[in-house]
Amino acid sequence: MRCFITRNPPRPLLVLSNKAGAIMLVDLSSRKCIAELCAPQSIHEVEIVQKDDTTDVLLTSFTGAQWIIPLENGGRSLTEVLTACIPSEFRKIEPSSSHLGLCTDGVTVLDSVGCSVELHTSLSTIGGVPKKRYKVPPDTWMVHYTGNVLFAVSKQAEVRSAVHFGLSAVRLEFSIIKGACEWRPLGFVSLSLRPARLPSCLLINERGLIRIVQSVSCPLENVAAEFLFRVPSFCLPTIQQVAKACSIDGSQLKRSVIPTLLLARRGKTLSPTDLSHLLFMAKTVEISMENLVDLFATYQQEEQLLPELLRVVEADNRSPLRKRVVELYIRKSEGVTANSGDEPYRISEIRLGIDNELSAFLSRHADLDQGAKSCAEAQLWRSGTLLASRQKTNQADVLRVLVRNGAKYWSTAAPSARSLMMTCASNLDWSELTEQEVGVLVSRLCEWQAALNSIAHHETCLRLSTKYSTLFPKHCSILYLISAMYIISDKAAWTQENDAPCRSISCGVNGSAAITSEGDLVIWGDFTNQQNRPFESSEVPNKTARKSTLEISSSPKKSRVQQLPHSVHVEGRPRVVCCGAEHILVLTSAGRLFSWGRNRFGQCGVGHCQPVPEPELVEGNWGSVRELSAGQFHSAILNTKGQVWMFGWGVWGQLGLGGRHIKDCQSPTLVTQLDEPIKAVSCGRVHTVLLTESGRVLVAGSGSYGQLGTDEDVKKQYDFRPLPVPENLIFVKIATSFYHSIAITDGGRIFEWGRNPQEVKMRMFVVRRLRMAQLKRMADEEGEEMPLPNMEKPKILLPMDAPRDDLGIREVLHLLDGHVVEAATGLSHSAVVTDQGSLFTWGKALDYQLGHGNKTERSEPHILFDPRDVKWELVACGGNHTIAASKDGRTFGWGRNDFAQCGVPSDKTSSLTRKYFYQPPKDGSAKRCVSLPDDSSYITKPTLIPQVELRFTDEDGLASSFDQKQLMTHLRGCDLPTLQAVSRHFIERQSDDSTKAKCSNVETSVPVALVHLMSGNVLAAIEQIGRARAASAEAKTDPSLRTVAGLAWEVVANHEDCQSRQILTAAFKYLPITNVQKRNSQLRRLWPMVWDEPGVQDRLSAEEKLDILQTWVAPTKSVTSVEIPGAALRSASNNSISRVRVWARCNHVEPAVVGVAASDCSACAEEWTETVRTTLGTN
Questions:
Q1: One-character DSSP codes across 412-465
Q2: Which regions does the record annotate with the repeat RCC (predicted)?
């Protein structure tokens, strides 16, 4: 039943219905039934709809069908309307899937099929454009609309709610109302509104009533903020509209919306879409990026702002937000452990990636120097070291982090992170540390270098011990001895058999290689010679007859794979690396040459033209190597005698073997037609350049593009001939890699010759276009038709072909700030490094290979200003990219990067129009250009390659000059505690399985046995000698081993406490015994005591055994106790008598402290050490 007041005239009326479908209208004032109607079906629900001067009854049957009965319409009264009402003509709601409902704002129309609900102002507007429209959950069959909340009942009894705040252009988020879904709902009854609360209602179900109210734990501001986050067209008017609907202050909602959203998402990772929308909202409500970072930091989510912050900083290099980037990276690293369920090594790898990103950022912002300690605590070692190096006061704090937590960090660190920890400890200043802190740090370094077992780390520790020996002599002495032992034990690493200077970086066409500070060979990019367009097809023959087991193709259709820096194992320690287009040469410190690559022309020098997938030894009789050079498809070796060996592609005479030799050489072949020793060699693409001892430059190969230094078109030159320059010029440095070359005189003058074919052809194309334009202009002036290009026109000044007068020798004018120490050439650019640490580049810049951040061509050397804090040491030029290293070992790359040849990842950019700039004429005309299509990615400025760090301090390395004589000198000056500490280190390493395999050379080291002996660890020394003898047959005749063994026999024979059964068994089993020692009476007396032990009798003949047994005398019982009267003991309690320790075996007496144990007699230990020193001094 429903009650309402009629409008004409006003009187109370009751509408009553029953299940039979009868509808009665009762006048409550007169208490009479004034009308009775009959509905088509049984009535379930009756609703009164009043709008302006219209009143209707909405009937709902048990089947869901609905009808509308008009009661009042315009000025017509109830009686007039009902008189004309026919039950069979009741207005039925169509379609049947629609369901009408009443609300305070009008009429709702639920479409159960379309899963939507529409809000109309009245029944008359149904079917037109709705006032609002919302999507509802599937299978919804009842809705209840309020001013701010929409309730929906779906399926049987699932009651859901969603806030809408009067906005229709938003996706509603429905949530199930707990406790309201147990019984089938029958209807909703709205309750009165309460301030700062969402509308509440009563849910009527089959068992009673349920009150639905807003949760106390979720304030209205939180609900409004979450709603605004889902609004796609977020703006300030939307905030005001929501604030008005909630009856809260608009400015307050504006201030609280971002903090509220962050609070609700504390500890969660925002998706890129959500983060982007949140940033848009913050910008709309006028929150600055600085304040936004603070807000994110309040809720521990600031690391999620890192991408946006980097974008802002890169757009403005002077932005104050740069300092916040370090904080965000640190927070990102700290959050890895909490959010990652991976293994510890995996977590360390993630941190390493974060460290690489931060260090690359810091390299571009040299003024940042705060946060070093925090970086170390977050295990960002590379970044922490870089920041600490900029601020000396922070270095001690970083080192103290290593002292306190180094062991814990080391246990879970990946190998690369462990190497960075070593680098951090070695690159920072120790002078501010205390003696105790240095002791702990030295202990860490000794353990870590044993675990890494890298000759580079051993050298670093040796260098540190020398540097700080005056400040911390005791600890540095321990570090020195341990590092020296590792260096001497690794013979393959410290044995120097060549005089080649270190060359740590090199570039090919699309790839690069480097030798890191740890001594690892790292390569990146592509070595299959893939190109957007192939080089001159006439130069590289199509060798289809040669089959390759590698699936390598130079076709431009092959997909490109970016290979970031990764290690390649080479037997030995790499010292020199050279890259060609498809092969790599590596020279180790032991003088061994390795090569691998596609090897189509025998450029690997291994005797065949099949692919060489792994580093393979190149054998030859060239002796000690001074220099290597890898051209694009041929290679050269220069030995210390000034002789040159060539191998690889030779069709253009670039091997310089003379006699019209155009065949490829698959093995290194000596160049015999040289009249003086060679000082340097450099290989290009189809030519080779030599520098003699007298300073002359010799060239051989093809000269089609000026590679031989002449303007003439010399197709092939089979032998080396002098460069056509004045005889008074003395050159000291040469460089070439592709078509053009440079040479530098002793006076600093720079000469270059040759040009890239692409450049020559482009110039030819431009000249022809200009010629055609000139012909057309002249024809227009004369009123004639345009003549053909071949027609003679005497007044035409432009030639048909590009001139060759600038392909030969030309001097490069420059204003360098010092003498050139390094030089390199690429496909169309050059670079030099001066002794002042400056880097200058010039040439083409279409791929940003000059590093100036633009595509402007430079005809003269221009200094590279960025990064500002860098002093350059090395440079190498690839096809269209450049790799350079700073004096502190950092490596940078820039230029073309479609194969990641710059060492950093990058995605292809969209297709851009390239503009080819060429040199303007000398008359001062503007530069011209020709547009070329391009679809490559670039690194526009020098960018740090985090994974590649070099070392240039003492390039020849301490290992190459360090020998056993220096070690012996240092050992003679060490005290007993130092020797014992070193001995304990190696004994612990011997028992540690994790480092035992890595330190296999130390296990057989004779110097380690000497340290054991000098420290009193006789058994350890004997076992060490035994392992050294068993390692190789050469060790048995090693004089140093026999000397140390003789010392061990002397100690065993003359000291009774070294005559235990265990020591004697080891001595007779492992130590080499001479005839003199066999006749030693003391040893003859000791041997029968252990003669029944296995291995003791193996080195004696039968006659020697009988001889010893005949002269053997059983030893007398030694004194094992001392009698002291009881009175003396009682009197000792008053401290009148000092406590002493008496050694029974040697009868030595020394002061003793109660409770402090002693394992060895100090007097005997000093005697042993003095004996060893004396022996070493006399030998």
A1: H--HHHHHHHHHHHHHS--TTS-HHHHHHHHHHHHHHHHHH--HHHHHHHHHHH
A2: 591-641, 642-694, 695-747, 837-888
User: Is residue 891 helix, strand or coil?
Assistant: strand
| Contact (CB, 8 A) for 835 and 822 | no
Answer for the pair 332, 339: CB distance below 8 angstroms, yes or no: no
- pLDDT: which is higher, 830 or 790: 830
* Cis-peptide into 95, omega within 30 deg: yes
Q: Is 310 exposed, middle or buried (0-12, 13-18, 19+ CB in 10 A)?
A: middle
Higher pLDDT, 995 or 335: 335
Report whether pLDDT(539) > 50: no
For residues 785 and 735, the answer to whether their CB atoms sit within 8 Å is no
Q: How far apart are CA 704 and CA 654, in angstroms?
A: 13
- Tell me the C-alpha distance between 218 and 222, whole Å: 6
Which residues, including other chains, have CB under 8 Å from residue 551's CB and lie 6 or more apart?
Answer: none
Q: What's 125-188 look like in SS3?
A: HCCCCCCEEEECCCCEEEEEECCCEEEEEECCCEEEEEECCCCCCCCCCCEECCCCCCCCEEEE
Yes or no: say if 70 and 15 are a contact pair by the CB < 8 Å rule.
Answer: no
- What does the pLDDT read at residue 560? 47
123 has pLDDT over 80: no
pTM over 0.70: no
**3-state SS assignment for residue 346:** helix
Compute the Cα dihedral for 999, 1001, 1004, 1005 and give only its sign.
negative
DSSP 546: S
Can you give the three-state secondary structure of 1094-1141, one letter per residue?
CCCCCCCCHHHHHHHHHCCCCCCCCCCCCCCCHHHHHHHHHCCCCCEE
Q: Binning pLDDT at 50, 70 and 90, where does residue 634 land? A: very high
3-class state of residue 387 by DSSP: helix
Residue with tokens 């849910």: 203
Integer Cα distance of 678 and 731 in angstroms: 12
**pLDDT band per the 50, 70, 90 thresholds, residue 359:** confident
Tell which residue, 550, 685, 566, has the closest CA to residue 629: 685
- SS (HEC) of 13-31: EEEEECCCCEEEEEECCCC
Q: Which residue has the higher pLDDT, 622 or 1122?
A: 622
Q: Tell me the two tokens of residue 897.
A: 């990067």
665-692 per-position pLDDT tens digit: 989 999 988 889 999 999 999 999 999 9
High-pLDDT (> 70) share of the chain, %: 78
In angstroms, the CA 830 to CA 816 distance is: 14
Bridge partners (DSSP) listed for residue 840: 832, 863
Outline where 607-756 has alpha helix (H).
none
The answer to whether the beta carbons of residues 563 and 569 sit under 8 Å apart is no
What are the C-alpha distances in Å from 380 to residues 326, 348, 597, 732? 11, 10, 36, 43
Q: What is the rounded CA–CA span in Å between residue 928 and residue 261?
A: 56
Record the tokens describing residue 410, joined without a space: 């080391």
- Residue 537's pLDDT is 31
Q: Is the peptide bond before 615 cis (omega within 30 degrees of 0)?
A: no
What tokens were used for 567? 């290690």
Is residue 40 within 8 A of residue 90, CB to CB? The reply is yes
- Give the helix ranges, DSSP H, for 857-932: none
- Which uninterrupted H or E stretch holds 405? helix 395-412
Tokens found for residue 852: 């100036």
Reduced to 3 states (helix: H, G, I; strand: E, B; else coil), residue 198 is coil
Are 740 and 754 a contacting pair, CB within 8 Å?
yes
Q: Which of 170-184, 392-406, 1038-1052, 1065-1079 has the lowest mean pLDDT?
A: 1065-1079
